Amino acid sequence: MSHDEEHVTSTAEKLVRMANQIAAFFHSKPREEGIAGVAEHINKFWEPRMRRQLFEMLDAGTENFDDLVIAASAKIKRPISPAEADMKLGLTAFPADIAASRK
Q: pTM to 2 decimals?
């Protein structure tokens, strides 16, 4: 495994762990309040790249995520791709960004 692959894996594991820690805190609240709390925290404090990776992992499967994270995902802001951001600004997107946004 290359260093880059190890970094991606460890970053993904850290994001899962952080999301699940947030959910663990909100399990002490009524379910709807917990779902809203998880979504609010992630929307406020996670930058778009973190949320993008969160959704990539959730889209691939939810087995590692706490059920509150899964439920809150419907209320978490899904960031646009880098290619979409470029196009919104009237810029030409890099071909690699366009290809990545189609995956």
A: 0.75
d(CA 65, CA 92) in angstroms, rounded, equals 36
* Residue 44 CB-density burial (10 A; 0-12 exposed, 13-18 middle, 19+ buried): exposed
Tokens 């810029």: give the residue.
91
Smallest CA-to-CA distance from 28 within 37, 18, 40, 15 is with 37
Output the CA torsion 55→56→60→61 (10° steps). -30
Q: Express each pLDDT in 28-57 by its tens digit.
A: 999 999 999 999 999 999 999 899 999 999
Going by C-alpha positions, the residue among 25, 75, 81 that lies closest to residue 52 is: 81
- End-to-end Cα spacing for the chain: 23
